[in-house]
């Protein structure tokens, strides 16, 4: 840039106190301001795009099935069974006796409790079993357990 020598109002031909800018000074300032505006607009656009991407990422990470939101692990349930609390009906039946006796660890107890609370099949079975505590069980040779509830005659077969 050219050196700007200040002129005193006395030396200025019109006496107004204004000093003439060096050649290109005003156009340089206009270009710098335009560049700053472009950078500001690009920054705002980038921030908006980043916020949008974060929002979409959060939305996509949400499970589409409300039941899946409560299950930390997804387990595929065999045909004819329900899956809640990360376990299916046959798993609940397998641990039913130990669950009733309080012999399971906290995690398995929580899974079974969650399953029983939501399952339209296991929930009523546990309610009936609680009303009819007298049951006889037998282990069959094919790894199945058969339980017969004394008062209702309800037969429960588990693997």
Which features does this protein show?
159 residues, mainly alpha, 2 domains, three-stranded antiparallel beta sheet, two-stranded antiparallel sheet, 5 strands, 49% helix, 11% strand
What does this structure look like?
This protein is mainly alpha-helical and 159 residues long. It has 2 domains: 28-55; 74-158, no CATH class. It is built from 5 helices and 5 strands; from the N terminus they run H-H-E-E-H-H-H-E-E-E. Strands 3-4-5 form a 3-stranded antiparallel β-sheet. The chain has a two-stranded antiparallel ribbon with strand order 1-2. A hairpin with a 2-residue loop joins strand 1 (83-84) and strand 2 (87-88). Helix 3 (89-101) crosses helix 4. It is rod-shaped and about 120 Å long.
Mean pLDDT: 75
Low-confidence stretches: 68-74
H and E order: HHEEHHHEEE
Residue share in β-strands = 5-15%
What is the helical fraction, as a range of percent? 40-55%
What would a concise description of this structure say?
With 159 residues, the protein is mainly α. It has helices at 25-61, 66-70, 89-101, 106-118, 122-131, and strands spanning 83-84, 87-88, 135-139, 145-149, 155-158. Residues 68-74 have low confidence and may be disordered.
Q: Layout of helices and strands, plus pairs?
A:
Elements: H1 25-61, H2 66-70, E1 83-84, E2 87-88, H3 89-101, H4 106-118, H5 122-131, E3 135-139, E4 145-149, E5 155-158
């Amino acid at each position: 840039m050219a050196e700007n020598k200040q002129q005193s109002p006395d030396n200025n031909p019109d006496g107004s106190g204004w000093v003439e800018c060096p050649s290109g000074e005003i156009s340089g300032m206009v270009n710098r301001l335009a560049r700053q505006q472009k950078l500001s607009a690009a920054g705002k656009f980038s921030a908006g795009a980043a916020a949008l991407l974060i929002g979409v990422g959060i939305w996509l990470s949400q499970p589409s099935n409300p039941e899946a939101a409560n299950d930390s692990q997804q387990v595929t349930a065999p045909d004819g069974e329900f899956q809640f609390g990360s376990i299916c009906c046959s798993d609940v039946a397998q641990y039913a006796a130990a669950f009733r006796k309080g012999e399971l660890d906290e995690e398995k107890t929580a899974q079974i409790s969650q399953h029983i609370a939501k399952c339209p099949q296991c929930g009523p079975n546990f309610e009936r079993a609680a009303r009819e505590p007298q049951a006889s069980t037998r282990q069959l040779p094919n790894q199945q357990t058969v339980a017969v509830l004394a008062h209702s005659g309800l037969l429960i077969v588990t693997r």
